[in-house]
């Protein structure tokens, strides 16, 4: 990422919208923005993709085949208008007896990485699940029994411009048993556990 070029472009943008990039309050703004972009758009740098720690199910003396849930928040940028969208996520998976278990902090790191670029929420949801699924299945390891990610985001391109309406967009990606229409489908258990069932119906 060429920070000098970003600074130059931002100075030009400030001029075009009628501002004076040399005034006291704005003089350092292009430099600050260029520095900030290194962090906000690190998702384009493959070298920064997080390393995911996995370990064999049962390694700690407990073979766990129940649902594991992780929650957190995310921040990204709309690829259509360049403004932020942000919100919360709920991730769950059911490990297989002879499969792998994820390290505790890894879901959050993967969400942050794929969110750190221009995105749409639908793609972000898919990329996170696909990445984690592949890492858990690496080297011929049996896949998890199921995996789910729900993301609920507020989009400033809707609330601060255009229709100027507040609201939340919800997206989901499901794999394995979460997709199976049978009695005891873990989807209902997942929604009950994260208290989102009413808002999804």
What brief labels describe this structure?
two-stranded antiparallel sheet, 2 domains, GTP Cyclohydrolase I, Chain A, domain 1, 7 helices, alpha+beta, GTP Cyclohydrolase I, domain 2, 7 strands, five-stranded mixed beta sheet
Note the beta-strand portion.
Answer: 15-25%
The major beta sheet can be summarized as:
5 strands, mixed
CATH C-level of the largest domain: Alpha Beta
Continuous helix count: 7
* SSE order: HHEEEEHEHEHEHH
**Looking across the biggest beta sheet, what order are the strands in?**
5-2-3-6-7
C-alpha geometry: elongated
What is the number of E strands? 7
Model description:
This protein has 201 residues and is of the alpha+beta class. It has two domains: 38 residues, GTP Cyclohydrolase I, Chain A, domain 1 (Orthogonal Bundle), CATH 1.10.286; 149 residues, GTP cyclohydrolase I, C-terminal domain/NADPH-dependent 7-cyano-7-deazaguanine reductase, N-terminal domain (GTP Cyclohydrolase I, domain 2), CATH 3.30.1130. Helix content is 34%, strand content 24%. The protein has seven helices and seven strands. Strands 5-2-3-6-7 form a five-stranded mixed beta sheet. A hairpin with a 5-residue loop joins strand 2 and strand 3. Helix 1 crosses helix 2 and helix 3 packs across helix 4. The longest helix has 16 residues. It starts with a helix and ends with a helix. The C terminus is likely disordered.
Question: Layout of helices and strands, plus pairs?
Answer:
Blueprint: H1 3-16, H2 29-40, E1 54-56, E2 68-78, E3 84-94, E4 100-102, H3 106-115, E5 118-119, H4 121-136, E6 146-155, H5 156-159, E7 169-176, H6 186-193, H7 197-200
Parallel strand pairs: 2-5
Antiparallel strand pairs: 1-4, 2-3, 3-6, 6-7
